[in-house]
Amino acid sequence: LTKDKLYSHLTRNPGKRAFRAKKRTSTSSDYQKTEAERLMRLSKKLTGSSGEGAEEGSSTAQEMQIDEGSETQDDSASKPTPKVTTHGPRMSGREVWKASKRGIQLRRAPSTTVWHKRSTGKPQRRR
Q1: 52: helix, coil or strand?
Q2: What does DSSP assign to residue 116?
Q3: Can you give the pLDDT at residue 40?
Q4: Cα dist. 118→12, 49, 76, 85, 122 in Å?
Q5: Whole domain around residue 41: which residue ranges?
Q6: Average of pLDDT values for 41-66?
Q7: Which range, of 7-16, 33-42, 103-112, averages the lowest pLDDT?
Q8: What mean pLDDT value characterizes the chain?
Q9: Is residue 44 part of a domain?
Q10: For the chain, what is the domain count?
């Protein structure tokens, strides 16, 4: 291990880590479903790889699958829910303010949006 990898967890923002952990465990969060699926895949992988512990772990995994199966049968009767997206337009506050001031229709634009036609004194390309 390098020194960077050894101490990398110390440089992470603990507030952000706590918020993400809260999102993963909250019942009203969309991230909770993804986290549960990830844990199921991981537990299957781990119980399948271990020889003796596979019998104990598989019984709990089967019980969880049975519980989830009863819920999914009810859900499958209705139409499947669309995939939840966590992305959206990344307009900065300044760009939104400029657009509202000029009455421009807001569109998702790249971060290199030029608001004026020509920038004098600057070359068009690097030389």
Answers
A1: coil
A2: S
A3: 93
A4: 42, 63, 56, 37, 9
A5: 1-51
A6: 67
A7: 103-112
A8: 71
A9: yes
A10: 1
Q: Is residue 30 within 8 Å of residue 81, measured between CB atoms?
A: no
User: Residue 54: pLDDT band by 50, 70, 90 thresholds?
Assistant: very low
**Burial profile 21-43: b = 16 or more Cβ within 10 angstroms, e = fewer:** eebbeeeeeeeeeebeeeeeeee
For the chain, helix (H) and strand (E) counts, in that order, are 5, 0
Q: Does residue 62 belong to any structural domain of this protein? A: no
In a domain, 103, yes or no: no
Q: How far apart are CA 14 and CA 22, in angstroms?
A: 12
CB distance 74 to 92 below 8 Å? no
Residue 119 maps to a domain: no
